[in-house]
Design a protein that fits this description.
Rossmann fold, alpha/beta, single chain, 10% strand, globular, 244 residues, 5 strands
Length: 244
């Protein structure tokens, strides 16, 4: 039987931290969130987490420094790094220090889900062989309505929506579910609040087009260069450095 995880989440982006907290809590895990690196270390000393999810550039201490403090002062635990502006050298330093995954912002929630599923299975906190969308589909009201009264991000009448659906389905897919124009407008406002922190399906189409347009013409006399190599797409590590 799967056991609940004790998770440390350190992220200074308030809307993103709230969304990740809700998604993790819907798994039945205990989530302890901090906005600063020094606060994260203090939390870790009190709760002794099983897993840490750390932004790289935190005020107080960096995510890398937080992780090293946890390993040195508490115990080694798996950790996932998320960042929108870490350099290649900083990302490789995180992987060398022991982070199991490095995810870039805007965050791809499917990649995020797959990463935490992989860690959870290793820790005995996930029974099923593979994650399903339904594992993140508890209505927002199940979490926020019972435990905290209401979501700070969503209007009350949207709390019966599944948070993972709201953030990973396209607006046209949400419209096809019969949502009113008013509800869709409110969802668009929530997405705009998270723009730059989470990658939405509409962003993927734009990003793919820009990457294709940016490629140089093929060189018939030599090997074609890859402008993406060393600059990974959102949600993954570096293609020439296998993740542990």
């Amino acid at each position: 039987m799967a056991r609940p995880l004790n998770v440390l989440l350190a992220e200074d982006d308030d809307p993103l931290r709230e969304v990740l907290l809700e998604l993790l809590a819907q798994r039945g895990w205990q989530v302890h969130a901090a906005a600063r690196g020094d606060e994260a270390v203090e939390l870790a000393q009190r709760v002794e987490p099983d897993l840490s999810i750390l932004d790289f550039h935190l005020p107080g201490l960096t995510g890398l420094e937080v992780f090293r403090r946890i390993v040195a002062d508490i115990r080694p635990i798996p950790a996932i790094m998320i960042s929108g502006d870490a350099s290649r050298e900083e990302a490789l330093a995180a992987l060398d220090a022991g982070f199991v995954e490095f995810l870039r912002k805007p965050l791809d929630l499917t990649s995020f889900r797959n990463s935490i599923d992989s860690v959870a299975r290793r820790l005995g906190a996930l029974d099923e062989p593979a994650a399903t969308i339904s594992s993140f589909e508890a209505p927002v009201a199940q979490r926020t309505g019972a435990a905290r009264g209401s979501s700070p991000l969503l209007p009350t009448r949207l709390e019966d929506l599944h948070l993972f659906e709201l953030l990973t389905f396209s607006m046209s897919e949400l419209a096809a579910r019969g949502l009113s124009a008013d509800a869709l407008a409110q969802i668009a406002q929530v997405r705009e609040m998270l723009r730059g922190s989470i990658r939405f399906p509409e962003d993927e189409h734009v990003g793919r087009r820009l990457r294709v347009d940016a490629r140089p013409p093929a060189d018939p006399g030599g090997e074609r260069s890859d402008p993406i190599r060393g600059n990974p797409p959102t949600g993954g590590g570096f293609p020439d450095r296998p993740l542990r």
